[in-house]
Design brief:
This protein is an alpha+beta fold. It has one domain: lipopolysaccharide transport protein A fold, CATH 2.60.450.10. The chain is 16% helix and 54% strand. The chain has two helices and ten strands. A hairpin with a 4-residue loop joins strand 6 and strand 7. The longest helix has 22 residues. The radius of gyration is 18 Å and the shape is elongated. The chain starts with a helix and ends with a helix.
């Protein structure tokens, strides 16, 4: 019984790595978590406690993540459709961080959609809030949905451009 559990966990991790590699222009995904539960019948893997997904220089941290298997029964790079991370989800980058309570990463797109009080925090003290924030993992850019607001300082040299 234990042997089958280890084989299932190994296959699941291999498939997760293949999924991430396809979505981020053939990059390798490093996955770390404290606990994992494979829900074979329901078709998803549950990653629990201190979840960290690293794709190149993009690091996604969350309390929990659900990785949903493809309904088409794909293998390798097509084995999973999406990853849903919840609980203080954060993507760190050299420019700053994107933070929200929920983030959905779909297999067929190179984006992560943040919701649940999402915000972008720049290292220079600027913060932008929106109803939803779309983070492109390839270009490392954000777009905003719905109402947006922000705070920060405008340099004296730039004031004439904006005022």
């Amino acid at each position: 019984m234990k042997k089958h559990a280890f084989i299932a966990i190994g296959l699941a991790l291999l498939a997760v790595t293949a999924f991430g590699a396809d979505t981020a222009s053939n990059s390798v995904v490093d996955i770390k978590m404290d606990n994992m539960i494979y829900h074979k019948r329901e078709g998803y893997i549950e990653l629990l406690d201190n979840v960290v997904l690293k794709i190149d220089d993009t690091v996604v941290k969350a309390d929990k993540a659900l990785i949903f298997q493809s309904k088409k029964g794909g293998k390798g790079k097509n084995a999973f459709e999406k990853i849903v991370a919840t609980g203080h989800v954060k993507i760190d980058s050299p420019e700053g961080a994107v933070i929200g309570e929920k983030a959905v990463w779909t297999q067929d797109k190179n984006i992560v959609r943040f919701s649940g009080n999402p915000r972008v925090e720049h290292g220079n003290g600027h913060t932008v809030h929106a109803e939803a924030i779309i983070y492109n993992i390839i270009t490392k850019t954000c777009s905003f949905e719905g109402r947006s607001s922000g705070k920060g300082k405008i340099k004296k040299s730039d004031r004439n451009k904006f005022l």
